[in-house]
Amino acid sequence: MHKKKLMVNHLIEALPYIMQFRNKVFVFKYGGSIIENEENKKAFIEDVSLLQHLGMKVIIVHGGGKHISRRLEEKGIETIFHEGYRITNSQAIDEVEMILSGHINKELTLLFNNYGTKAIGVNGKDAGLIVAKKKIVSGNIDIGHVGDVESINAEFLELLLKNDYLPIISPIGFDKSGNTYNINADDVASEIAKSMKAEKLFLISDINGVYTILGEESTFISRLDYSQASKMISDGIINGGMIPKMKSCLESIENGVASVHIINGKITHSVLLEVFTDEGIGTMIERSEKHVDYEDL
């Protein structure tokens, strides 16, 4: 009986969020080591399928770096990174597109459809979804077929969502000259969230969220507003590889996204815990209301 009452309490706690977010757009960036783990993948698919059945409009952008590295190694193509970006020559981009669009994307699409969700797998070339341009990095080093998003065909995504489809997007873009580009999945998810004026953008990987002191659990921050997050960057509290991720979060909020959530996909049903509980499980960054120093959080 106790378990049944507990379940009822959870449903009651979730009800206001279900009502608030019905028909709102949620964009998920799904990547990191969680894409390699079958148990974590199953929980993610269950969570997102439930969101869609409850009336949320969901878009997924996936990565696949480890799959790509294995494939390139098998083909004898050396992997070199510059400023965190994989140098991608003409031979490598064919393999990258094949792994992202032909393998990972179609596997996820099949799994979602088997859960009763109308999923459709696409890449940036479909319906001109992601127009890209060559990425320019410092040092005048040519990193090949690596791109930045130039525009998103939001009308195409709106059409899919209107007809209750779940778009699953591989981060492959193109330009008008016929070049193909591999694009950072965080960047694609952010640009899509901005173009769709999404209610929420979720960055799902294998990190819990934001800490004032990395590795010290007592310094974990569950909620930040725009001003607090900006100050943490300028103060050097957020540093290293977390800087571009946080800047992407802030840019999304600047352009109409209501909140961005950094959550750990290794925690079972982390999506539902973040969306439907008062405390959440990751770090939520939202628009500024009143400024509070992060030291006081």
Please provide a written account of the structure:
The chain is α/β, with parallel strands linked by helices and 297 residues long. Helix content is 40%, strand content 22%. The chain has 9 helices and 16 strands. An 8-stranded mixed beta sheet has the order 5-8-2-1-11-15-16-14, sandwiched between helices. It has a two-stranded antiparallel sheet with strand order 3-4. A two-stranded antiparallel sheet has the order 6-7. α3 packs across α4 (90-114). Mean pLDDT is 89; it is low at 290-294.
Keywords:
9 helices; single chain; two-stranded antiparallel ribbon; 16 strands; eight-stranded mixed beta sheet
Secondary-structure blueprint of this entry?
Layout: H1 2-21, E1 25-30, H2 38-53, E2 57-62, H3 65-74, E3 81-82, E4 85-86, H4 90-114, E5 119-123, E6 130-134, E7 147-152, H5 154-162, E8 166-170, E9 172-174, E10 180-182, H6 185-195, E11 200-205, E12 210-211, E13 220-221, E14 223-225, H7 226-234, H8 242-254, E15 259-264, H9 270-276, E16 283-286
Parallel strand pairs: 1-2, 1-11, 2-8, 5-8, 11-15, 14-16
Antiparallel strand pairs: 3-4, 6-7, 9-10, 12-13, 15-16
Helix pairs in contact: 3-4, 6-8, 7-8
